[in-house]
Write a structure and sequence with these properties.
Elements lengths: L29 H10 L2 H5 L18 H16 L6 H10 L8 H11 L8 H12 L13 H7 L5 H10 L6 H5 L5 H25 L4 H4 L3 H13 L9 H31 L4 H6 L9 H19 L2 H23 L6 H9 L3 H14 L2 H12 L6
The structure holds magnesium ion.
Length: 390
Amino acid sequence: MLPLLSSWACPVDQTRGRRFAETPAPTRTEHQRDRDRIVHSSAFRRLVYKTQVFVNHEGDLFRTRLTHSLEVAQLGRSIARPLGLNEDLVEAICLAHDLGHTPFGHAGQDALNTCMQGFGGFEHNLQSLRVVDTLEERYPQFDGLNLTFETREGILKHCSRANALRLEAQEPGGVAARFLTGHQTSLEGQLANLADAIAYNAHDVDDGVRSGLISVEQLQTVPLFAHFYAQTLADFPQLAQAATQRRLLYETIRRMLSEQVYDVIATTRQRIDQAGVHSVDDVRTCGQRLVSFSDGMQTQSQALKHFLFHQLYRHPQVMHTMDAAQQIVQELFAAYTQQPTMMKARYALRAQQAQSEAGVARVVADFVAGMTDRYAAKEHERLTGQRLLP
Ligand code: MG
């Protein structure tokens, strides 16, 4: 039995198709099949050793890109079902959304983007698409995972105009077309994007406090946190004791998450109604993003994001690690560009076949972007003799 979805959802039994035609699976929908391919990919397994905010060696309980992706998928599904959206598609997009992330989080991505200036730059959303379209090598008939149009479109959540033009030339009317026409992605794609933001705002509060880099006292300046912290304490005054501080924090975060989820569901329903959309095509051409927070929650969520940016992501201790991370990425890039044979065999071969300096640089970027934190640190040590991170 296929679930009954709203008219504005991407249908479960239809897809705009795969780049290489395949026989449908006997027991799974096309988007379930996409999700399964993503979970079985090598890039997905590597996410466990990639930094979200804290580098892997800093502690066993911090989020990694893998646990982050699982939390995004959980939130995505929770919101998808009451809205009558295609849950399997949401899950597939959420699980794949960070596949193209470099080692060492945003520091790694910024460093790689700097290295790639002059060669087309480096964008992690586009890289996630490259992973599922090209870089995974699992199937005899094609490169990549050959995912459906809907999943690929959701993965490419941002794209520069220059890259959109390049993609459009290869695939006319394809996944990049909306960046040129101003159309929207499906509701499933919009939801995956928002679920990402809800997830990291919440779990970075948890990890930030756990690390000792931010305190519950500092968080009192964030209205969303302060409100639910006070509410939890009023309901459970006994949690104020030192021994139960973690439960107090968890309950506060749980309430913050629930409130945001309910807010998105109610606001999105309202917007769908107001926009009068009745189909996926209406969603694409209605001229506005329909999956969103209410204005009030948007302001509160922004305030939390702003707090985390300044107090956690820019914390001197995080920055110190990230400086080392940037140096690792830059020096790896320089070493491989000079001597492509130092890369793994399949990348060395691709570099040898590349027609231009930009082509070689792209192969090097693909290789470096695919690395886990510890593999990058080890490779850097092998090539330079310097150990920058434990
Ligand atoms: Mg993410």
